[in-house]
Specification:
- There is one protein chain.
- The chain is mostly helical.
- It folds into 2 domains: 1-30 and 139-210, no CATH class; 68-136, no CATH class.
- It is 75% helix and 5% strand.
- It is built from 8 helices and 2 strands.
- It has a two-stranded antiparallel sheet with strand order 1-2.
- Strand 1 (105-110) and strand 2 form a beta hairpin.
- Helix 2 (48-82) packs antiparallel against helix 5 (140-161) and helix 5 (140-161) packs antiparallel against helix 8.
- The protein is elongated.
- The mean pLDDT is 85.
Length: 226
């Protein structure tokens, strides 16, 4: 009569040990990751209830990464066009662009998008610089809207995701006894991926706000300089 209870207790103990090992391993992995910079990608775990949230987070994160990439590429293109060093800031690039244009650039605002237009013939390096700036500014209004959405969505997703590690045993238990044994040996990996994702999602609101601020600053600076 006591054997099923004993077996169940032993199984729960095993699950607790496995999940605990996963948490220890995840913490060690996190320390290694911090040395190389914060992670920015979302991993699927194989647990449906978890991955439902993580798939939403991945879509939001992709929007964020796209905006960051556009800003980064514009900086690189502007520096390259004007032959500036890698340490040159975007503001420094815009000021150099204005200097070389020699008064031949004007601002054109269309639907909230700030664009630079040449009023006369300009050198090829200035033309390339203008193209680099305009390529970014065309996407700024929509990017800022997307980033505001990412900030709000990721804040909500983080509240859900941070409960996942403590709910791991219950989630695995809902798969049935066969599923429990099948998932038993994957539990540490699931735990590591879950904690990894929680860290990424937790950082997304700040990343989105920072990128949005930088994009708005680009538009503001263009108006101030030109």
């Amino acid at each position: 009569m006591n054997r099923p209870l004993y077996s169940r207790s032993r199984f729960v103990l095993m699950m607790t040990v496995v999940l605990g090992l996963g948490l220890i391993s995840a913490d060690a992995e996190a320390k290694k990751k911090r040395k190389g910079g914060a992670p920015t990608h979302i991993r699927m775990t194989g647990v449906k209830s978890f991955d439902k949230v993580f798939k939403q987070a991945r879509k939001a994160n992709n929007k964020l990464k796209a905006a960051q990439s556009d800003l980064r590429q514009s900086k690189v293109a502007l520096r390259s066009a004007l032959g500036l060093s890698k340490r040159a800031t975007y503001v420094q690039g815009l000021r150099e662009l204005k200097r070389r244009a020699d008064g031949k650039l004007r601002i054109w605002v269309d639907g909230g998008r700030v664009q630079l237009k040449a009023t006369d013939a300009i050198p090829s390096d200035v033309r390339k610089g203008v193209d680099a700036v305009n390529e970014l500014t065309r996407s700024i209004p929509s990017a800022v809207r997307n980033l505001n959405g990412v900030r709000k969505e990721s804040t909500k997703m983080f509240k859900k995701a941070q409960r996942f590690p403590s709910n791991m045993q219950r989630e695995l238990g809902q798969q049935g006894i066969d599923g429990l044994w099948d998932l038993l040996f994957r539990a540490p990996k699931i735990t590591r991926k879950t904690l990894h994702n929680v860290r990424v999602i937790g950082a997304m609101p700040k990343r989105a706000a920072k990128t949005s601020s930088e994009l708005v600053q680009v538009s503001t600076t263009i108006k101030d300089i030109f």
